[in-house]
UniProtKB/TrEMBL annotation:
InterPro entries: HSP20-like_chaperone. CDD domains: ACD_sHsps_p23-like. It comes from Jeotgalibacillus proteolyticus. This is Spore coat protein. The lineage of its organism: Bacteria, Bacillati, Bacillota, Bacilli, Bacillales. It comes from the Bacteria.
């Protein structure tokens, strides 16, 4: 019998594959005293923000629930945005590309704060002289 054939079941039924995988995982975790239950998933907290970019803008969506807009502070630099919501730690968001100093806006609707940052369209390139070290 081939080594690989001994590892995998001989059937193509999805139920058989799932049962084989569950048995395999149970055996793997048996020595570590960690029960494996594929039905139980670790609870992952809701993400603090959703970031997506287009050709000209970076959009950030943050759930603000019922916080009054006057109490929320939004700041940004060329490479990072920061949002302070009362009674929560500051959310610092690294930006995927540099943004321009002008053209940023923020709007809220249905408990979601949308921040729109304009990308820096001016790309500059400089040639650096190379000095010889003697």
């Amino acid at each position: 019998m081939d080594f690989w054939q001994s590892l995998f079941p001989k059937t193509n039924s999805p139920q058989d594959w799932q049962e084989w995988l569950k048995d395999y995982m149970d055996q793997s975790f048996k020595n570590q005293n960690i029960p494996f239950d594929p039905a139980s998933k670790p609870s992952s907290p809701e993400p603090e923000y959703v970031l997506f970019e287009t050709f000209h803008y970076i959009f950030i969506h943050i759930r603000i629930h019922d916080h009054p807009l006057q109490s929320i502070k939004v700041h940004h630099s060329l490479t990072q945005a920061a949002v302070q919501i009362p009674d929560k730690p500051m959310i610092k968001i690294p930006l995927p590309s540099p943004i321009s100093k002008k053209g940023a806006s923020a709007e809220a609707k249905d408990g979601v704060l949308e921040i729109r940052l304009s990308k820096n369209q001016q790309q500059f390139e400089m040639e650096l002289p190379i000095d010889s070290i003697d």
